Amino acid sequence: MKLPEISIQRPVLATMMSLALVLFGAISLSRLPVRELPDIDPPIVNVTTVYPGANASVVETEITERLEEAVNNVPGIKTLRSESREQVSNITIEFNLSRDINIAAQDVRDRVSRVRGRLPETIDEPVISKQDSDARPIIWIGMSSDRFTPLELTDLAEKQIKNRLQTVEGVSSITIGGEQRFAIRLWLDSEKMAAHQVTVLDVQQALLEQNVELPSGRVENWDREMTIQTRGEMKSVEAFNQLVVRQNKDRFVRLRDIGHAEQGVENERTGARNNGRPCIFLGIVKQSKANSVAVSHGIRDQLELVRPTIPDGIEMVVNYDESTFVEESISEVWLTLGFAFFLVVTVIFLFLHNFRATLIPAVAIPVSIIASFAVMNLLGFSINILTMLALVLAIGIVVDDAIVVLENIHRHIEKGMEPMDAAFKGMKEITFAVIATTVALVAVFAPLALQSSTTGRLFVEFAVAIVGAVIVSTFVALSLTPMMAARILKPSSKKQGFLVRRFEATLHFITRLYQSILQGLLDLSVIARLGILGMLAVFLLFASQLLYSNLEGDFLPEEDKGRLFCFVIAPEGSTSEYTDRMLKQMEKILSETPEVEIYGSLVAPGFSGPGLANNGIVFVHLKEERDRSVQEIVNSPGGIRQRFFTEVEGAIAIPTIPKTINRSFRSPFQVVIQAGDLEELDTFVSDFVNQLQQSGFIQNIQSSFEYNKPELKLDIDRDRAAALGVSIQDISRTLQILFGGLDVSRIKKEGKEYDVIAQLQRTNRLTPGDLDKIYVRNREGSLVQLSSIV
User: Fold this and answer.
1) Same domain, 68 and 198
2) 0.85 exceeded by pTM
3) Average pLDDT estimate for 399-419
4) Bridge-based pairing state of the strands 596-603 and 215-220
5) How far is CA 233 from CA 202, 243, 245, 759, in A?
6) 15 and 63 co-located in one domain
7) CB within 8 A of 505, min separation 6: which ones?
């Protein structure tokens, strides 16, 4: 191979090649994204559809089953899971690891669009989203105030703060958790509606006819023209109260006669608090492949600029920052990398006793490591804990090539050869061995990069980082190392320092001790030697097995990241107010825990559509300076878990320490149960859960299947309805609007559109008896009491 000879003869060329490697590596290092672990998430696509006012069984039959049938034949599906709950259908499709998530999402979108005509008209348009690790918020900012309502905070965030934060480099979007979006609420009184002979469908039709703005053409002559704008839209609450919904003889019936309009919010069932104060949360989603640490620093800098511009009394704090732990972990690995480099160089010096000789591998190591970043960038990898650990490990591997080359050249110099001649002769002897060593190392680590399982993908970047460093180190060992050896090496000095003499003495003592032990074994008979070695092997085997059997098995160890999630699950049928009271009990316990710094709670969290009223979550951030670990805070006697169990009465409260890989809120142990019908499934699940609870090995058992929510079922007398001229569709639509709340129109405010939602006021929908006060209009225009046909 001519590379060593060319490098020795042309030192400038060898130097420039190494500098080019360093330059490419340094540029790549500045461009590589930073994350905690490699992205090993499988391609997952979610289809979320909201059906306002519908119960779980209606959602399943009318939406979920039809969408499942449509998307089930998309190529590459590994698993398909669906969840039908009140108002929301959610289908989760996991594809094979080799499937491109963008193409998969487009295929799902095409299948959904084909069956859109078979879905109910009143649903919100199905949302197809990619469950990408880079599409999750990496920072949550709590925005709280005692002076401003969540509605006002949401409005401020939408109009002012979101735009400022989105200017930060690397930010993709801003999501708002616990938002209270503006809406006009039309609160209707069933008794007044009956007295004025008005139905809710009359109100809806009046809005369709009177709250409208359509293009009206233009007026034009030979020289000028003017467009005509018919201002038919309602602009204020008073305009809605003045809305004429019906004319009874010579009298107009207005909305104010049967209820009232007011400014309100779209979703009254959700709410958020931060350290006990009403709030909203701003979630920062970074761009794909963006540096999460740089995004975090940019967001924090922008917050310092935003705070002076917002009204007094509003507090903005960072509740959660994923990059904090990532930055600390990567910094520790960088420190380990530097310390490993120092130890390697020190050991080389102790053995070679030559500063000039030590300088050569001290230069070769950073060149190889830095150039490895270029390989990682070329393959689209990231700086994470595993790739950095790979480089730490690689230090001990890449130095081997340099040492082998250096030691052989140094040996010839010690024999009296000139450094230049020694370099040529040494490289002729050792080049093949260096290449063979590289091939062997690549053969060891390369198969790790070929694995296709989830666990295997975790180590792809690890393996490639090591292989890249080894290949680069071989190039450096065959170019830069012999060139430097030929020009800076000199015979070692016979004079040795105190430290070197002590090291040599210790090394000679260990060598003599080993020789004596080895000689003693060799002096024994063959049978005796085999007996001693056999007993030693058996002892080590059993000791290893004993130690291994006592180790706990897990995908990744549980780490103290200074945060935890606390969930509350109230009984089925609980209102959001009841769940909120349970959350306040949990907040009280957390506020009394000295290690807790910030806790943010959310009632009915809706991460994929409207949330369940009986669910709640608390995000907890612990103090940096504390004596107890998060595991001790949660699981110790008198800890959060025990206090939740004994003090939160009327609901299940569960503290959870988040895992690195398990980023969803699902439990680590899951069982899938299938049955022919719902009643059979409910019976089997109940028995199975009871057996698990009695076993004593598992705690906090939860089932995604809930068949016990209280329901009020209305059976319509079809013959009677037909005889009275009442449409079944009008009955369903009336109940959907009055009891479910439905947007029946829109209002424009400051350039944006908001919903106009009609619903019975709370006092008219407290008991089943309130259904007796509802009327529908038949084909002749007369009112028919609902209780007469159901």
Assistant:
1) no
2) no
3) 84
4) unpaired
5) 18, 11, 15, 21
6) no
7) none
How far apart are alpha carbons 375 and 368 in whole angstroms? 11
Pairing of strands 752-760, 182-188: parallel
617: domain CATH number is 3.30.70.1430
Separation of alpha carbons 473 and 479, rounded Å = 10
DSSP code per residue over 562-591: SEEEEEEEPPTT--HHHHHHHHHHHHHHHH
Residues 368 and 428 in one domain: yes
C-alpha–C-alpha distance, residues 430 and 478, integer Å? 10
480 and 18 in contact (C-beta within 8 Å)? yes
* pLDDT per residue as tens digits for the range 59-118: 889 999 999 999 988 998 988 988 888 888 989 998 887 788 889 999 999 999 999 989
Q: How many CB atoms lie within 10 A of CB 400?
A: 18
The answer to whether position 143 is within a domain reads no
Could you tell me the residue range of the domain that residue 204 belongs to?
184-213+233-262+712-788
Burial class (CB in 10 A: 0-12, 13-18, 19+), 724: middle
Same domain, 528 and 609: no
Residues 243 and 201 reside in one and the same domain? yes
DSSP letters for 746-782: EEEETTEEEEEEEEE-GGGSSSGGGGGG-EEE-TTS-
The Cα–Cα gap between 566 and 346 comes to 49
How many separate domains does the chain show? 5
Rounded CA separation 690/708 (Å): 16
